Queue: 4 jobs
Job 1
Amino acid sequence: MSSGRNPENNDKPDPFLSSEPVPANDFELPDLKQEAKYGVYLWWPQEGDDWIHPDDVETCKSMIPGNRVFRREEYDSVYSILLYADFYIRVKPTMWLEVESDLYEVNDQIEVRSQMGRYDPRIGVITEMRWERIRQKIIYEVRQGEQIIGYYDATQIQPAMRLDEHLDERRRRLLDKYRLM
């Protein structure tokens, strides 16, 4: 019969071996990473700026309100972290409009689909992600170097990659979503 003790640490009961209830504080749960959420702040979410981390107020005021699509990925006990390109903003939970992600991100290299000759197929980099209210979709600004080559939705672009490029989980899901793998 098992003692209900963890063989690696005799001080704490093993919740899987014990037949008695084990207090939650006596063992650690694995960190569960939440899926990233995407959304926009079309309006200033509340009076004042006490919902913004004090170090991020100026950056936040330059980016919100607007139609930029932010990625909310990490949390701590007080602030959520919003990411946009190379910027991050720490904010307390507030009202925003959550939008469905196409899995593309700012700085992703993409190819513009020719769509039967309608567009010139080109390789570029996503430099902006904006929410278009009327069509209810994300529009991507794409550049080649310093030149803007156009504004596209997810149906008009596809991931571009080198043959020797390593695929992380996000890129794998992106390629799978657009059936390019």
Job 2
Amino acid sequence: MSYVLVVDQQRKPLDPIHPGRARYLLTAGHAAVLRRYPFVIILKESQPDKEPAPLRVKLDPGSKTTGIALAHDASAQVVWAAELSHRGQHVKERLEHRRVCRRSRRQRHTRYRKPRFLQRSRKEGWLPPSLESRIENVRAWVQRLQRWSPVRACSKAPKETSVIGGFRTGDIVRAVVPEPSKKAGTYVGRIAIRATGSCNIKTISGTIQGIHVRYCQPLHRGDGYSYAKRSGASSPCLNAGGAAPIFR
């Protein structure tokens, strides 16, 4: 259940309240509706002595929808949540339609559309319009929540990777493939796991595809730590980040 955002008479954000409490304040005439999206009510009296509890905006980004939640920074209790639908595909379709219209005007031998010449330079930091639309959409909603609620921090949900056969993408493994196989040999590197149980191993000499996890032995989990090569180690293989893991 999402709580209702509240501001006082001076438009200072207060603690979100239960929807039942919000209905009572609206019915009794102690508050009025200030905004519809997000739904915000404004009290008809100021409360300068009341200090709200800090909230945190949590984001779960996606290509089509992004999850947004407001949670207490101390107890992690979610008080407001929503799904934000992006218009990336619509923006892409509109750009393709514009390109077709401009190209047809150039081929009509009219003077209303000049041919493109040295106009293809892009500014530094350019992003595709569909991706820029998604970023600005999330940024606009975070700014709205910061304005109407006591937000003090913002965080993004960590990316979850599936575990197949005890391995996940990013782990460093040693794969020993027996002789009858076409890919017989010993390979050391980072793996990209698949749901079917096979994986790709990125070694210093290239990427080996289609190795089953039953041939893999874990050397290092993808926990973000950096490893240096031990002096006298026999393996010359490096991981994908360039640092050499410790193994014999």
Job 3
Amino acid sequence: MYKIFTTAVGLLSIFAVTQGALAQDAPVAPSGAEAEAELSIDLPELPAFELPDLTGEMRSLEELKGRVTMVNFFFPSCVGCNQELPFLKRLYEKYRDFGFSLISINIHPAQNRQLTRWAQKGGYSHPILRTESDAWRKAFRVEGTPTNCLLGDDNTMLKRYEGYSPHNLERMEEAVRRMLGLDK
């Protein structure tokens, strides 16, 4: 009986995570001082970083200033990540000319060798960055994957989505459109 109970609790936990029960969502607000005044939810700040992309070029958070950016934390063998990334790819292709950027950070260094082949197979053209230690997972407070942080044009984190959920995908696109001024 205990085994059935623990199995049921485990399945319910998995269902809750896959349905986006862990998503945090702060109201979309403009960047700068207005954003600071309107946002009261405790979203962690992303630490500055400089990480290599798949070609070895160093990329930083600073270079994203001036654009609305989704920072995606993933790893290649993550099932939810592989369900979500095709959507993020389409989002990037659809809105990049309007000022939207997407950057993905692999948080599982043991899978760095797979990244180039994995990215080619998925047809991903946005920057994909490598990490060399698990310290990144702690620094960015990533407890599960996928985790996405939506940044305003001043790199202030305005929204955080944890776990894969079709509902999160809809909310992500709505937030991106509003932040780009496409939905007023």
Job 4
Amino acid sequence: SSTAAVTNLTLRGLGFGVTTVPLLAGGSEEGRYDGALTLQGTVKCRLQGLSIGPVAGHAISLRGASNAGDWIQDCELSHCGAGGLYANGSQNTIISNNYVHDFGLLYPGGIGIEAGSVASLTSHNTVRGGGYTGIIARGQDGVVESNLVFSCMQALNDGGGIYLSLCSNLVVRGNLVRDMTGPVGINHHGIYLDEGAHDSLVTGNVVQGVPWPMMNHMATNNAVVNNVFLVAGDLRLSFFNSTNYTFSKNIVLAAGGVSLDNPGAVGSWSTDLFFSQSGKTNGIPAAAAQGDPGLSDPAGTNFSFAVVSPATGLGILPLEVRGVGYQVPPPIHFRFLTP
């Protein structure tokens, strides 16, 4: 029947491209557009090894809570007029080992990956080159881990590499976000917990080369633990209208100044390490430790400690993020030529 679910269907090794969308306003995050491939009412279906692009709208769209247990793996989604992969509303969705790039080319509010809403896993994806945010996660009980996100926020304001809102019990773990290098005046952040994000954990991530590596806005009861935030210039952390935060065992390192907005959102700063090579700080609580963490390779992917470091005395664990992003280049079975 027209309402029966499609179950256990696999699409593998196909190519889609040169699709159009109706001429209408895309709405928030260009969410009104369809995908070149749209799934609705699918259960435990798999999209594997697809090559999608160029397309006028999204590459792939999962439409709503009737989608459950689907798996999108090893795909390349590129040259999208709007977004790459939209799974908002879906349940138990796995988005793994995909390469999403050059999105938001016609409609710059497009997102690289919009994760599923309930108990979803978004892991080992590489997302680059978009006008707005790289990965968005909402809903509950989801995991965003081991992704590489860079060179997003090329056109629009107030977004970031990984963005959370209206969510609970989400885990953002082991990701590398770097080089959000949008135009001057654009507020581009590394990891952004926005309105309604609560009771979630951000841990083991590295945000590199982003002057505003973490923004928290109208968020509460979140924990930010054992991350590294570093930039070659000035660095800013913000907790606007946020409350009851745990910020623990993090390294905050800048060649320029370091500033902190609304430190009162955090109960204790006694296990974090701040270091401004220029010696310029603003808003750093007296309880916070300051000193050079002695990172082995701050410009690379190895954030272990090369020398005796004050970080070890604070219980901060060294990080290494060499395994982020897709692990084997997604197979390209079919490609439409782009001009």
